[in-house]
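Reader question, answered in our methods column.
A reader sent in the components of a multi-part assembly and asked whether the whole thing could be modeled at once rather than chain by chain. We filled in our standard form and ran it. Here is what they sent:
COMPLEX SIZE: two components
ENTRIES:
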Amino acid sequence: MTGRVFIAAVLAALLAPALADEIPRAQRRSGYDAMSPQTRAMQDNESENPATLWVLDGEASWRKPEGEANKSCADCHGDASSMKGVAARYPRFDAARGKPVDIEQQINICRVERQKATPFAYESHELLAMTAFVARQSRGMPILPDKAAGAAKTVAEGQRLFTQRRGQLDLSCAQCHDDNWGRSLGGASIPQGQPNGYPLYRLEWQSVGSMRRRLRNCLSGMRAELWPVDAPEYVALEMYLMARAEGLRMESPAVRP
Amino acid sequence: MARAALIVALVAGVACAAHADELNVFVVENDGIPASLTGASGDATRGRAIVVDRQTGLCLLCHAGPFPESRFQGNLAPDLAGAGARWSEAQLRLRMVDARRLNPDTIMPAYYRVDGLSNVARAYIGKPILNAAQIEDVVAFLATLKDTKAR
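And here is the structure of the entire assembly that came back:
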């Protein structure tokens, strides 16, 4: 690269607007709004929603004693109604650990520290089932992002990741999900990338999956390097997306195309 | 002023990265690249196949165009119908090679650039989206799209 071209590239980078515009609050839409009536009905009717199978498995393991402590979730938390609103508030900044924790990580913290059991693997049926069961208790509740002092730094980091171009296709999340939502990408409507339905049953996956899995799909589509599955980048993006979705109603476990 | 850029793949951060392919030298004049990247003319028939292939050209993810057999087309970007009437081959070539030289905010990826990117998946490091011959095939095809009439 010649010096002149390098200087031009640096200048172009400096002159480019740093951030895309976020979606105004009045225009925030759940992915549900763009779905067909059939897919909406599948989500709304619990006996048709395939994720109900995961919820039922999660409910069974809620009551099952586990680990060296031989304790169940219910032994500490009681009835699942104690989980009402929890998923609408995660990820949260964990002051004791000095880092943000998403709901899957929180479940595993309980497993290791309270139950003295082995943590569930990311994307395992057991973790998805427990997460779906816990998140189910927040259905219909508005997202309440963590506004603690420690959370702000992670939200900012998530926003940086969301607006940073990456991969061979040199795209950012924001270029599709802030700037072009509602338009057609190869025939599919681009959603706003709202986090209010996770974990969710995706028809394309034929399975329930986490937001982490969805983020990895997008990274692959950009032809970008995937972060390791336990990387803090996913939690930062989740935390930013929850802040960006403040007030949207939880639909977990949602159904999406 | 003509700007010459020898584009060399820059691979940072990955100690064992594969040796990056070097791209052919090209010269930008005004808002175009007048000379073929390969020195030869492209093949419009092959170019059409690249455009409609959703894994290779990726074009119809964002663009629509006169491709009746392709049911799912995008609308993030201008319709390709009439592209050959709106632009010269030189202009089409630069818009393919690196549209960001013309508009740094465009969503159009640079199809023939390997530097200035971040977090590229290992399998794609040092590789442009299309190679020089494929770019020329697509340019040759787009130049045939003279008809701007709605389909």
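What stands out: Strands of chain A lie at 92-94, 99-101, 184-185, 188-189, 200-202, 207-209, 255-256. Chain A touches chain B through 33 residues (CB under 8 Å).
Send us your own complexes using the same form.
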